[in-house]
Amino acid sequence: MKFGKYLAQNMRPGWEEHYIEYDKLKAIVKALTKTELQMPQRDISHYTTSLTVQGLPSNFAGKLGTKDVTQEDFFKEIDKNVEKIGSFTAMQVKQSKALLERLEREVDVAVRNKSPGAPSTGLQAMDVRAKEIGDTFLDLEKYININYTGFYKILKKHDKNLPSTPARQFYMARLHQTPWIQGDYSAVFVTLSRIYSKLRDDVVPESQDLELKDFLRST
């Protein structure tokens, strides 16, 4: 399956606009490839350098619809997508932490005030909320992974079709330094585990408890 199709099929509903714009980047590479194939090889090699990804002149342009596109446009799109994904990831992490902190406070109050033998409906509802937050965070982990794969694949395609201006090694090294790749998200899982521990004795059946342990091990 082509990655563009795989990406479209695996987007979380509601998050679509926050993923890498893979098809747009692919179209730019295609337009630039067509132009490079039409250039004499000596003209291309004249601008090639091993020290920079910006090897071709700014007037080296392809056609994307009715618009001229350049190598600079491609790299700007890469940077824009990296920034967009980083901002969205940071927002989701912040939101998850806030939701878990609030939920933990509510769980503490509910457990402390629960009478022996009393119905645990409220705690069960909190258990559902904890699972929803955990599921969303796992989706965020998948979001990070699929976007990382998208950058790798589009940069690999760029270098394969435009070998005179290799960019993959340079940009992947930069990508590895971004907060959304380097981020330590363990605090979220620690808080989630702590909440489940507080709820487990009251509301989590044994089978669900085993599912929880599998979930935490997998993360």
UniProtKB/TrEMBL annotation:
Coiled coil: none annotated. It is a multi-pass membrane protein. InterPro entries: SPX_dom, VTC_Complex_Subunit. PANTHER family: VACUOLAR TRANSPORTER CHAPERONE 1-RELATED, VACUOLAR TRANSPORTER CHAPERONE COMPLEX SUBUNIT 4-RELATED. Residues 1-172 form the SPX domain. One of its GO terms (biological process) is polyphosphate biosynthetic process. One of its GO terms (cellular component) is vacuolar membrane. This is SPX domain-containing protein. The lineage of its organism: Eukaryota, Viridiplantae, Chlorophyta, Chloropicophyceae, Chloropicales. Its main location: membrane. It is found in: Vacuole membrane. Keywords: Membrane, Transmembrane, Transmembrane helix, Vacuole. CDD domains: SPX (cd14447).
